[in-house]
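Backbone-to-sequence.
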């Protein structure tokens, strides 16, 4: 045995065969071939990486390359049986098992990954059903992915609160997210997050207690993720409806169209990206009459974070954007009351205009917020960022800049680009770049960029 082999802790790896739980008991011959195809265009590399991320739920690392290197021997194969399919795994993370059996929630997440990857490849990307270059085609694709995942409840009242915030937050902020979730649960509201740790897990954890006290047995804890981020932010164990969206733009659209209210907790660049996305689309004149309950909240010690965000929004998007949200500091019950009042506004509005309760069809999302932004050094350097732009263009480009930093921080392809070519260069007018650099510096100082390891900036701001 070599020295390297001797250092491997085999207790961290498990070989196992598991049957479906929750969805997708059968696959066609073509789907089986796609999932086993390791070549260009095949689904195996995507399925393997997403499956490994789900099996690694609970890890304290947000470094995708570290995960893939640690489990480089991980393999997953589809095995057909007379009554359906099973998954055969080699060198899988042991954390997904207890006494030799895969944890039930992990198994549900694993087959949700399989369900969504197969559906998106065959029914969204390869079919002629959707024109993914046009707004209507993109929105219809988002709807069909969510419907296929069975998260659209036709007869449910408006009660789904989307919670955004950082995966890397201090304990006091995490505890606060749980208190807010608890108050939401007591009022019968359900929770949707990005499915990962930190501010994505806390509200769900609190809501489970609130639901339990109110004897609500069918609480919904929806997690929306996408292949590029799932390895860095694997689904937390409370998620009972996991959906893998094709890319960050469709994930953000799914949040916006599912939400009956949105709460934003402190976070880093990913949270800033989400705020800019939402405010950017709400500033479209076509959405002026849309009730969109939006609250920014955190404990008293986080007040400075909200002051910085509020100031940055005022500079970049103006007073009209600032008027679209409330900031509530250290008052979980008031946050929940604001969401109850807001969801009632949404209910009345949707009934009045004849829109669906479970999917906001009438929200207009401009193409700049829908079309995928391919992150590269060239595309980031080409972003036009200045205060003379129309506000919707500025919001879209700022959102793209933050998306690039997220990619460089935690997404495997972004991390590899930074390793090969150095930091992304973000260029723009001096006043805007000064504000952006100051906000990003504060995220670094507050350790909001990454969970694991010392943070090395993946960007360079150039005025």
């Amino acid at each position: 045995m070599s020295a390297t082999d001797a250092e491997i802790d085999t207790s961290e790896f498990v070989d196992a065969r598991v049957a479906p739980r929750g969805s997708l008991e059968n696959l066609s011959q073509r789907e089986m071939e796609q999932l086993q195809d390791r070549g260009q265009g095949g689904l195996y590399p995507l399925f393997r990486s997403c499956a490994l991320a789900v099996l690694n739920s609970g890890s304290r690392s947000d470094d995708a390359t570290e995960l893939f290197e640690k489990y480089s021997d991980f393999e997953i194969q589809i095995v057909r049986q007379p009554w359906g399919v099973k998954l055969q795994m080699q060198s899988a993370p042991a954390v997904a098992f207890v006494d030799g059996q895969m944890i039930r929630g992990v198994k549900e997440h694993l087959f949700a990954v399989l369900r969504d990857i197969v559906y998106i490849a065959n029914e969204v990307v390869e079919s002629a059903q959707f024109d993914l270059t046009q707004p209507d085609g993109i929105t219809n694709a988002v709807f069909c992915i969510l419907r296929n995942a069975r998260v659209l409840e036709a007869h449910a009242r408006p009660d789904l609160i989307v919670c955004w915030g950082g995966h890397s937050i201090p304990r006091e902020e995490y505890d606060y997210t749980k208190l807010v979730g608890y108050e939401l649960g007591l009022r019968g509201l359900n929770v949707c997050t990005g499915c990962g740790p930190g501010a994505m897990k806390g509200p769900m954890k609190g809501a489970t207690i609130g639901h339990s006290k109110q004897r609500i047995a069918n609480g919904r804890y929806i997690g929306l993720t996408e292949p590029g981020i799932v390895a860095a932010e694997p689904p937390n164990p409370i998620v009972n409806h996991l959906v893998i969206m094709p890319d960050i733009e469709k994930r953000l659209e799914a949040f916006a169209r599912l939400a009956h209210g949105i709460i934003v907790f402190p976070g880093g660049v990913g949270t800033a990206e989400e705020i800019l996305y939402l405010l950017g689309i709400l500033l479209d004149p076509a959405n002026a009459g849309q009730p969109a309950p939006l609250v920014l909240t955190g404990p008293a010690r986080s007040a400075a974070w909200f002051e910085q965000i509020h100031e940055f929004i005022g500079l970049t998007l103006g007073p009209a954007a600032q008027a679209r949200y409330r900031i509530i500091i250290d008052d979980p019950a008031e946050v929940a009351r604001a969401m109850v009042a807001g969801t009632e506004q949404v209910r009345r509005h949707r009934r009045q205009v004849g829109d669906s309760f479970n999917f906001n069809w009438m929200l207009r999302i401009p193409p700049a917020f829908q079309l995928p932004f391919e992150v590269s050094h060239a595309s980031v350097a080409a972003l036009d960022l200045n205060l003379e732009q129309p506000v919707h263009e500025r919001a879209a480009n700022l959102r793209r800049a933050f998306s690039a930093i997220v990619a460089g921080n935690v997404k495997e392809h972004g991390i590899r680009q930074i390793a090969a070519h150095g930091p992304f260069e973000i260029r723009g007018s001096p006043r805007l770049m000064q504000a952006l650099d100051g906000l990003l510096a504060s995220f670094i100082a507050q350790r909001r960029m990454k969970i694991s390891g010392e943070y090395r900036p993946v960007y360079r701001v150039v005025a």
